[in-house]
Every structure is written in C-alpha cells, then in structure tokens.
Amino acid sequence: MSKTDTAQLAVAIGRIIAKQRQAKNLTQEQIAEILGIGSEAVSRIERGAVMPTIPRLVELADLFQCNVSDLLTAVSPRPSDQAQYLDGLLAPLGESDRTMIVNMVERLATRLVRQ
C-alpha cells in the first residue's frame, strides 16, 4: 500500500470514528478521558493525521458498541465490505424504503456501467 493510499485510509477511518463519536453524543474530550489519552490525540485520529492501531480500534469499537469491522468496512474498497456496510445502512429501514433505495442504486449502477 502506497503512502498516499495509507494517508487516504487514515482520513477515511478518522471520519468514520468521528461519525460514530457524534452518533453517541460524545465529545473528543470525553473519548480522550475514557481512553486515557489527550484530546489532541483523538483530534489527530479523526483528522486522519494518525492511523489508529488495532488495539485502539478495538477500544473505540467497544466504546461505540459496534464491531471493529464496522469501523473498517465503510472505508474498504472491497465490494463485499461495501455490501456489508450498505446492509447495515438498510437494516433499520422499512421494506418500502429499502426497496426504493435498492431500485435507485440499481438504476445508478446500470447507468454508470453504460458510460
């Protein structure tokens, strides 16, 4: 993996961590206190300036009450991971909303394949 790819991955993972933190209504300072690190360290992770270690990802997943894979699949370029991420987004929706979104994605994918 090139340095550019690694940097882009760090930024993408940082965004997911920030999104999870905000969904739990936690501040960077609260996360820092729970993890026993400085709030600047949390900020650097969320900005993608630092790639979190695997143990740190495990701690964050525990804190956000999600799987470590939830922090990674949203940013993975692998179609199977992306499908798993979409599954998580669709799961809480009602059947008619899921059907609408699947139809939209199908139309968009068909159009993009033609180009």
Automatic annotation (TrEMBL):
<feature type="domain" description="HTH cro/C1-type">
    <location>
        <begin position="17"/>
        <end position="71"/>
    </location>
</feature>
<dbReference type="InterPro" id="IPR001387">
    <property type="entry name" value="Cro/C1-type_HTH"/>
</dbReference>
<dbReference type="InterPro" id="IPR010982">
    <property type="entry name" value="Lambda_DNA-bd_dom_sf"/>
</dbReference>
<dbReference type="Pfam" id="PF01381">
    <property type="entry name" value="HTH_3"/>
</dbReference>
<protein>
    <submittedName>
        <fullName>Transcriptional regulator, contains XRE-family HTH domain</fullName>
    </submittedName>
</protein>
<keyword id="KW-0238">DNA-binding</keyword>
<dbReference type="GO" id="GO:0003677">
    <property type="term" value="F:DNA binding"/>
</dbReference>
